[in-house]
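[job 4471] stage=fold_predict status=RUNNING
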Amino acid sequence: RYLRVSYLMSSRPKRGSAKQKQAEEEDKPQDKQPKVSKRFKKEDFNDLQDIANLLRIDSITSTNVTKSGHPTSCASIAEVMSTLFFHENGIRFLPNNPNYFLNDRFILSKGHAAPILFAALSRAGVFPAEELLKLRKKDALLQGHPVPSIPFVDVATGSLGMGLGFGAGMAYSSKYFDKIDNRVYVVLGAG
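[job 4471] inference complete, writing structure tokens
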């Protein structure tokens, strides 16, 4: 591995060289509009940052209504969630069939940030936005942590770091037993 990395590093153009400037010009986006997934509702967004802000607002609103939850933990991963769920190269799944076998998998290992996962799923069309206002209420679909009774949630999480083992097992199973081409995403964090 180290040889390969050093080889790649040595073949990179030097900073400030004409080759590097040309490469930077080619990498600049020609279109200022972000690439938002077709599965997202058609609302005006300038880029993924706007989606991240909407997810923050949704998660803070849901935790405020119930007077329970971790809004700052949600706010800290808003950009990650907007990129994973709404960028064209992010998670591939069917919102109308969230438990479909070939969907990519997502594990929120920092389970206390569940309100932002619920906000992303709601914005993607998995369930109606009204469910966000019932967070942590008795007999509600959405609870304080992700649980498998929620669409698109495969494992219950809460203890920090436990999702990594689940994700590794799911990825191994998909590749070697199920022989399907899907990805498993795990978001870890402590705050």
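[job 4471] summary: The radius of gyration is 19 Å.
[job 4471] exit 0
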